[in-house]
Known about the structure:
Blueprint: E1 7-13, H1 20-28, E2 33-37, H2 38-43, H3 50-60, H4 67-84, E3 93-97, H5 103-109, E4 113-122, H6 126-140, H7 148-168, E5 174-178, H8 183-199
Parallel strand pairs: 1-3, 1-4, 2-3, 4-5
Helix pairs in contact: 1-8, 4-5, 5-7
Amino acid sequence: MAQDGKYRSILMFGPPGSGKGTQGQVLGGMPGFFHLSSGDMFRAMDPDSELGKTFKEYSTQGKLVPDELTVQLWREHMKGLVSAGDFVPDSDVLILDGIPRSRAQAEMLAENLEVLMLVHLQASDEDALVARMRKRALEQHRQDDANEETIRNRFKAYAAETEPVLGYYPAELISIVDAVSTPLGVLSQVVDAVRAKVEG
Length: 200
Protein backbone atom coordinates (compact mmCIF):
# COMPACT_ATOMS: atom_id res chain seq x y z
CA MET A 1 0.00 0.00 0.00
CA ALA A 2 1.20 3.53 -0.70
CA GLN A 3 2.34 5.62 2.24
CA ASP A 4 -0.85 7.69 2.18
CA GLY A 5 -2.99 4.57 2.60
CA LYS A 6 -4.12 4.31 -1.01
CA TYR A 7 -4.40 0.99 -2.84
CA ARG A 8 -1.83 0.51 -5.60
CA SER A 9 -4.00 -0.11 -8.65
CA ILE A 10 -4.14 -1.00 -12.32
CA LEU A 11 -7.33 0.05 -14.13
CA MET A 12 -8.63 -2.08 -17.02
CA PHE A 13 -10.62 -0.41 -19.79
CA GLY A 14 -12.01 -1.82 -23.01
CA PRO A 15 -15.20 -2.01 -25.06
CA PRO A 16 -17.57 -4.98 -24.83
CA GLY A 17 -15.90 -8.12 -26.14
CA SER A 18 -12.37 -6.75 -25.77
CA GLY A 19 -11.49 -9.37 -23.16
CA LYS A 20 -10.67 -7.04 -20.27
CA GLY A 21 -12.39 -9.35 -17.79
CA THR A 22 -10.43 -12.35 -19.07
CA GLN A 23 -7.14 -10.47 -18.96
CA GLY A 24 -7.89 -9.08 -15.51
CA GLN A 25 -8.63 -12.57 -14.19
CA VAL A 26 -5.39 -13.96 -15.63
CA LEU A 27 -3.35 -11.15 -14.04
CA GLY A 28 -5.28 -11.53 -10.81
CA GLY A 29 -4.24 -15.17 -10.65
CA MET A 30 -0.59 -14.19 -10.39
CA PRO A 31 1.06 -13.71 -6.98
CA GLY A 32 0.99 -10.07 -5.88
CA PHE A 33 -2.09 -9.16 -7.95
CA PHE A 34 -5.81 -9.14 -7.05
CA HIS A 35 -8.56 -8.76 -9.67
CA LEU A 36 -11.93 -7.20 -8.83
CA SER A 37 -14.65 -6.62 -11.40
CA SER A 38 -17.67 -4.45 -10.69
CA GLY A 39 -19.84 -7.49 -11.51
CA ASP A 40 -18.13 -9.54 -8.78
CA MET A 41 -18.71 -6.70 -6.37
CA PHE A 42 -22.42 -6.42 -7.14
CA ARG A 43 -22.92 -10.19 -6.96
CA ALA A 44 -21.24 -10.35 -3.55
CA MET A 45 -23.51 -7.68 -2.12
CA ASP A 46 -25.90 -8.69 0.67
CA PRO A 47 -29.36 -8.07 -0.85
CA ASP A 48 -30.85 -7.68 2.63
CA SER A 49 -28.44 -4.91 3.70
CA GLU A 50 -29.51 -1.27 3.48
CA LEU A 51 -27.09 -0.73 0.59
CA GLY A 52 -28.32 -3.89 -1.12
CA LYS A 53 -31.95 -2.84 -0.85
CA THR A 54 -31.13 0.59 -2.27
CA PHE A 55 -29.30 -0.96 -5.21
CA LYS A 56 -32.25 -3.26 -5.88
CA GLU A 57 -34.62 -0.29 -6.01
CA TYR A 58 -32.56 1.28 -8.79
CA SER A 59 -31.95 -1.91 -10.75
CA THR A 60 -35.56 -3.12 -10.69
CA GLN A 61 -36.67 0.27 -12.05
CA GLY A 62 -34.02 0.15 -14.77
CA LYS A 63 -32.31 3.24 -13.39
CA LEU A 64 -28.58 3.88 -13.27
CA VAL A 65 -27.11 3.52 -9.81
CA PRO A 66 -25.73 6.91 -8.63
CA ASP A 67 -21.95 7.25 -8.62
CA GLU A 68 -21.86 8.02 -4.90
CA LEU A 69 -23.68 4.78 -4.11
CA THR A 70 -21.40 2.71 -6.36
CA VAL A 71 -18.27 4.17 -4.76
CA GLN A 72 -19.72 3.62 -1.27
CA LEU A 73 -20.35 -0.04 -2.11
CA TRP A 74 -16.83 -0.38 -3.53
CA ARG A 75 -15.26 1.07 -0.38
CA GLU A 76 -17.24 -1.27 1.87
CA HIS A 77 -16.45 -4.24 -0.36
CA MET A 78 -12.72 -3.44 -0.26
CA LYS A 79 -12.80 -3.21 3.54
CA GLY A 80 -14.35 -6.67 3.63
CA LEU A 81 -11.69 -8.10 1.30
CA VAL A 82 -8.91 -6.61 3.43
CA SER A 83 -10.48 -7.83 6.68
CA ALA A 84 -10.84 -11.35 5.27
CA GLY A 85 -7.23 -11.34 4.11
CA ASP A 86 -8.24 -11.87 0.47
CA PHE A 87 -6.57 -8.62 -0.56
CA VAL A 88 -3.36 -7.55 1.20
CA PRO A 89 -2.75 -3.85 0.46
CA ASP A 90 0.88 -3.89 1.58
CA SER A 91 1.86 -6.50 -1.00
CA ASP A 92 -0.94 -6.78 -3.60
CA VAL A 93 -1.65 -4.63 -6.65
CA LEU A 94 -5.40 -4.19 -7.20
CA ILE A 95 -6.67 -4.75 -10.75
CA LEU A 96 -10.00 -2.96 -11.24
CA ASP A 97 -12.36 -3.84 -14.09
CA GLY A 98 -15.58 -1.86 -14.57
CA ILE A 99 -14.88 0.83 -11.99
CA PRO A 100 -14.39 3.80 -12.15
CA ARG A 101 -17.04 3.98 -14.84
CA SER A 102 -17.46 7.75 -14.95
CA ARG A 103 -15.30 10.79 -14.38
CA ALA A 104 -17.20 11.50 -11.16
CA GLN A 105 -16.33 8.02 -9.86
CA ALA A 106 -12.68 8.55 -10.85
CA GLU A 107 -12.63 11.81 -8.89
CA MET A 108 -14.20 10.22 -5.83
CA LEU A 109 -11.83 7.25 -5.91
CA ALA A 110 -8.76 9.48 -6.11
CA GLU A 111 -8.55 9.43 -2.31
CA ASN A 112 -8.49 5.61 -2.31
CA LEU A 113 -6.36 4.68 -5.33
CA GLU A 114 -2.74 5.15 -6.27
CA VAL A 115 -3.19 4.48 -10.00
CA LEU A 116 -0.03 2.88 -11.36
CA MET A 117 -1.37 2.56 -14.90
CA LEU A 118 -4.40 2.10 -17.11
CA VAL A 119 -4.57 -0.78 -19.58
CA HIS A 120 -6.79 0.32 -22.47
CA LEU A 121 -7.80 -2.57 -24.72
CA GLN A 122 -8.64 -0.85 -27.98
CA ALA A 123 -10.31 -2.37 -31.01
CA SER A 124 -8.26 -1.66 -34.12
CA ASP A 125 -11.04 -3.49 -35.99
CA GLU A 126 -14.48 -3.01 -34.47
CA ASP A 127 -16.03 -5.48 -36.93
CA ALA A 128 -13.77 -8.20 -35.51
CA LEU A 129 -15.08 -7.53 -32.00
CA VAL A 130 -18.67 -7.63 -33.27
CA ALA A 131 -17.98 -11.03 -34.85
CA ARG A 132 -16.35 -12.25 -31.63
CA MET A 133 -19.35 -11.20 -29.55
CA ARG A 134 -21.89 -12.76 -31.91
CA LYS A 135 -19.93 -16.02 -31.82
CA ARG A 136 -19.89 -15.87 -28.02
CA ALA A 137 -23.63 -15.19 -28.00
CA LEU A 138 -24.28 -18.36 -29.98
CA GLU A 139 -22.00 -20.46 -27.79
CA GLN A 140 -23.29 -19.11 -24.47
CA HIS A 141 -26.91 -18.42 -25.54
CA ARG A 142 -26.55 -14.74 -24.66
CA GLN A 143 -29.32 -12.96 -26.52
CA ASP A 144 -27.97 -9.50 -25.62
CA ASP A 145 -24.87 -10.15 -27.73
CA ALA A 146 -26.63 -11.72 -30.71
CA ASN A 147 -27.95 -8.55 -32.35
CA GLU A 148 -25.36 -6.49 -34.24
CA GLU A 149 -27.19 -3.19 -33.77
CA THR A 150 -27.36 -3.79 -30.01
CA ILE A 151 -23.63 -4.55 -29.91
CA ARG A 152 -22.72 -1.40 -31.84
CA ASN A 153 -24.94 0.68 -29.53
CA ARG A 154 -23.02 -0.77 -26.57
CA PHE A 155 -19.77 0.33 -28.25
CA LYS A 156 -21.14 3.87 -28.61
CA ALA A 157 -22.25 3.93 -24.97
CA TYR A 158 -18.84 2.68 -23.88
CA ALA A 159 -17.06 5.39 -25.86
CA ALA A 160 -19.30 8.13 -24.47
CA GLU A 161 -18.88 6.81 -20.93
CA THR A 162 -15.19 5.95 -20.94
CA GLU A 163 -13.46 8.76 -22.84
CA PRO A 164 -14.09 11.28 -20.02
CA VAL A 165 -12.63 8.78 -17.51
CA LEU A 166 -9.51 8.24 -19.61
CA GLY A 167 -9.18 12.01 -19.94
CA TYR A 168 -9.09 12.35 -16.15
CA TYR A 169 -5.79 10.46 -15.88
CA PRO A 170 -2.37 11.58 -17.20
CA ALA A 171 -1.67 10.24 -20.70
CA GLU A 172 1.63 8.74 -19.56
CA LEU A 173 -0.26 6.29 -17.31
CA ILE A 174 -2.25 4.83 -20.23
CA SER A 175 -0.95 1.77 -22.09
CA ILE A 176 -2.88 0.90 -25.26
CA VAL A 177 -3.27 -2.78 -26.16
CA ASP A 178 -4.75 -4.09 -29.41
CA ALA A 179 -7.72 -6.20 -28.31
CA VAL A 180 -8.15 -7.74 -31.76
CA SER A 181 -5.69 -10.58 -31.39
CA THR A 182 -5.63 -14.07 -29.92
CA PRO A 183 -6.18 -14.23 -26.15
CA LEU A 184 -2.50 -15.15 -25.73
CA GLY A 185 -1.46 -12.30 -28.03
CA VAL A 186 -3.46 -9.82 -25.98
CA LEU A 187 -2.11 -11.29 -22.74
CA SER A 188 1.45 -10.89 -24.00
CA GLN A 189 0.84 -7.20 -24.72
CA VAL A 190 -0.83 -6.68 -21.32
CA VAL A 191 1.98 -8.41 -19.41
CA ASP A 192 4.63 -6.38 -21.26
CA ALA A 193 2.79 -3.15 -20.46
CA VAL A 194 2.32 -4.04 -16.79
CA ARG A 195 5.93 -5.12 -16.43
CA ALA A 196 7.13 -1.82 -17.91
CA LYS A 197 4.92 0.33 -15.64
CA VAL A 198 4.85 -1.68 -12.41
CA GLU A 199 8.23 -3.40 -12.37
CA GLY A 200 10.18 -1.07 -14.62
